Amino acid sequence: MGPPSIQAVCRITTSDGKVFEGFVTLIIGGYHGTHQNGFYFYHDDHHNWTVYFDYEFNKLERTSPTKYRIGNFNPDAKRIYFLAYTLDKENYWLTETKQEVQDKSDNFLITRTVIQRKYLMLDTLPLFTDLPKYLDLDYTDKKTNRFNIAMQDIVSFEVVLEPSNFLLTEIEKKRKICYAEVYGPDSTGDFSEPIWVHELIKKPEKLKQLREEFEKWHRK
Predict the structure, then answer these.
(1) Considering the entire predicted model, what is its pTM?
(2) Which of 139, 128, 125 is nearest to 170 (CA)?
């Protein structure tokens, strides 16, 4: 089944002082390894940066109108986008392709493999308040209850390590519904439940294992 997806309860504060909490997918797991959601910082056509979620769970902050901080990185950006990797074939087939590239250098022929990934590039951040049947968030399903928060209005984005009882209850309610089906008599046995950050941090050995597997995968 591959590595699990990592989801989190997240808190967003906007420039008008409003605070929102909901669900976000940080890392998508599965048969083909791990793929991260993240942020794209655009300053101009020559200066732009991409920061993907990882197991550090760093907070994003806007420190001035065009200055941000996430971990030890402090990019300047006139615009910021949310990047969502998804596998929905009917709407946005965001896939990974490999291409062989050959370069001639002196007496050598150099062959390189280029991996291309496509992402939804959103100027709003979907913060889900409801979970689908199988718990994995779908960024192409616009019917699911969510806040769509303009990226330009966000002054901070952070993973919540102690979620509210309301959101914990929502997770447990949908978990029970999901379990009743995937572990029922017709189960195929290939269900992989997403892992929640607020539960993962209470299991340091599991967190260490997943972090090491994640780093190993991305060194390939």
Answers:
(1) 0.85
(2) 128
